[in-house]
Every structure is written in C-alpha cells, then in structure tokens.
Amino acid sequence: MSENIGEILFKKNLLTKEQIAVITKSQKKSNLLFGQLAVVLGFMSEDDLINVLSELYSIEIINLEFLYINKETLMLIPYELVISCLAIPFFVDRKTIKIAVADPGDLKAIDLINSHIRNKKVQFFIARKTEILRLLEIIKCDGKSIDKDPLLLLNKIIFDAMESRASDIHFEPLENMIRVRIRVDGILRILKNIDFDSWMRIKSKLKLISNLDITENRRPQSGHTRIFLAGKSVDLRISTHPGIYGENFVIRVFDLSNGIRSLADLKFPEEDFLWLKRVIAFPYGILLIVGPTGSGKTTTLYSLLREINSPTVNIMTLEDPVEYQIEGIKQLDLREEGILSFSDGVRSILRQDPDVMLIGEIRDEATASSAVRASLTGRLVLATLHASTPIEGIRRLVDLGLKLSDFVPSLIGIFSQRLVRCVSNIEGRFPITEYIFFSEELKQSLLRNSDTSICKADKSFHDSAKYALDNNLTTLAEITKVLGNASI
Prior knowledge:
By secondary structure, the protein is an alpha/beta fold. Helix content is 40%, strand content 23%. It has helices spanning 2-11, 17-26, 34-40, 46-57, 71-74, 79-85, 107-116, 129-140, 145-148, 150-163, 196-209, 270-279, 297-308, 334-337, 342-350, 365-376, 390-399, 404-407, 440-449, 461-470, 476-483, and strands spanning 87-92, 96-101, 121-126, 166-173, 178-184, 187-194, 221-229, 232-241, 248-255, 285-290, 315-319, 330-333, 356-359, 380-385, 411-421, 429-437. α10 (150-163) packs across α11 (196-209).
C-alpha cells in the first residue's frame, strides 16, 4: 500500500521520485506510515495528504478545529487505544459511533477499534493528525484546561449554546470583563464571564472564520461561517458593533443538522395551517412573511418551500446567506455568487424561468419593485419583510417608495408572527399570528380609498393570544412581554 500511495502522490505531482526514495528508506527506521512520514519530512502538506487519503479510501474528511466532545463520547474508547490508534470518537447515537482517524491506511488500528466497538456501527472519518494530537492533549488534562485555551473556550461556549437550544450568543465587553449571554426561548441569560486576554484571541478567531476585517473595530461588520461541531453542521451569523469598552459581538446559531421542519411541525393552529396552505396554492402573486428578528419568519418560509417543492415546479431562492440547503431547489447566495443586491439577483434568476421565487428579505425599493414585477409575470414570490403587523407591512412598502397601485394588485397575503414561550409540557416556543388575505374586493377597496385601516385581519394577534391563553399554552405575562398590553 505504501508503494501504491507513493505512485499516486507522484502522479498527482505531490512527490518526486527522489522524495519517494527518501521516504521509503526512512520507513525502515520509523514506525510512521508512508504519508505521515512524507508530511514529517516536509515533502508535502498535511492537507494534501488527507485529501489524497480521503479519495483513496472513500472516507469523508472531518474538521476537528471547532469540535467539542462530551466526556461520555470520549470514554467510549479506552484512552490507551485512542493514543495508540490516533483516533477520536466525536459523535454517538443509538446505532452509530463516528470516529476520526489520522490515517485510514493503518489497518491494524482500524481492526482494533472495530473489535472494541461491538454494539454499534462504526463510521470512520479522516482528520488532520495535528488536530487529533491537540485533542488528545486536552483529554489528558482536567476540565480547567478549557478556560486556559481561549479557542477551546469558544468551542465550549458554542457547544453549550447549542445544547441549550439558544438562538443567539452575545459577547459584551464591560469595564472589567467580557460577559457572555445566550438567548433561549426569547430570554437572555448569562452563560459565563471571560477575561480580556482570552477575548482578544476569541474575537480574532471569529473575525477570521467569518471573513471580517480583523483590523477594523470602529464600524459595524457582519459575516457568516459554517462549522462542524459535536457531530452537527452549524451555521454562525456573526455581527459586530462598536461599544464603550470594545466591540460587541452577536452570533446567531443555526443548527443545520435538524433539517427543514414540515409546516405541520411548526405548531400552528389548524386555521393558520390551512390559511398558509391556501395562499401557497396560488400560481402567482406575492406572499409576505413579516415580523422582527427572531420571530421565526425564515423557519416558516423554508417550511412553505418544502410544502411546495416537487419535480414539476422550478423553485429558486435568493438569500444572504443560504441558511438551509433543500434538495431539488436552486439556491443562490448573494455573496458567493458575487451579486451586489437582491434586486440584481431577482433580475438574474428571472432568466432561469422559475415558477416560485424566494427572496430572503425585501430591504429597499429596487428589491420590492423587482419582486412585484416577478409576480406580475406569472411567478409565486415568497419574501420576508421587517414589519410588526400586516398593516405595517403595507406601510413599510410605501415607505420604501412604492405606491399602493404598484404592489396591491399582486398581493396574495401578509402573514405576521411572533414566538411565545410555552408553559405546558410542550417544548420551546410556538407562534402567535396575525394575517390578511387580499381578496379582489379588498384590493379594489384599498386602491380606491388608499386607506390601510380598511384591511381587517382574518385572524388578529388578539385572537391568537386569546386562543393560547384559553388552552393554557402560555401565560398573560408572556403574551404581554412579546406583544404588549394592546394585544389583549
């Protein structure tokens, strides 16, 4: 196998014949495998090696840089075996254990691990040897070592946030420390405090991985990255803002491993569910999902796409960035595609003859106008808009520069939602909603009178809050906190 690997590396122009001869000779005095020795001797990079081994053994590469592993998972393999095999168990469920190895060509190590794990299917991944060795060093130390390693501390903070089902992580510089808070079910709570020295390294790391300007700290920045943590794919949206004692960071956490929930799983009452099913059955027009940040707009939007998705429908999305990947749907990321704005993107994807278009957010007049034009050419357009209520959604479009006559004819409906904490045995939060269906009669009245007050909700926040209270789903205090006293 060493000779085969050598030939492969030579054909890929990663090693010369002379270097292969040196490695082969050195192997007689070393217990390292061929590829490992090539890296140690400086003939090739570790990344080049694992890419070749991944292809050769048809094994997936795993990045351990952001991996945080709980003690129960680590203890599934004896420490002595972990050391001798250079293998790290990083994920386990009822049927499978996932293990990262430095070299899948070490068949003796693979056999030893397989013989030890008897009651689960073993799935091997390949990882950088340097990352495995770093984790092994951490395993040897007690839990206090986490606080001494700022980057490992960052991993632990993100891991704890995910375990708590947090939607956001806040890093807030105060006079003498950095306060770390997480938002769970809409409520902020303190996770821990960290010192300024640790924070400087954590801050630099966050900027690097999200492609932010590491030298800029006087103006807001935003970016995103995708990491693999505790066996899950996680999307991080990173936003910075200058403050008195330094930059404030907020990270929005999206656990992508759960996939897209069906519309039926979003805990909407039956009348809300049927209303949404009704409006997405229209072949063309605009459906707006409105609400503040964190109200669940995007989750609902993706669930609607899942409901519409079929081999007979051409669905295209325009997002910044793409949050969840959906099989069978063409998704465009503004930044990755080099598209300057949503309006430019809309013009671009219209050339692809879509039946359904999703616009991640209407932010300006150009995007709003493009969405309207798309709907008037026979497309169903789904989009989000920052507005409090359906009525405010109409006013927001007017504030952006559109006339009622520009967009009202294409409106199907406006759906507004908030998330309220459950107090029963139902986990998490559920949606409180208000929505308007724009019938032809309502459209004509609105165009004649130019008075948004004539738009009566099919279901109001008041109706939704009353339903939740009558069914003991939440408390009056929760409703008031989310909607204010006016809704009751």
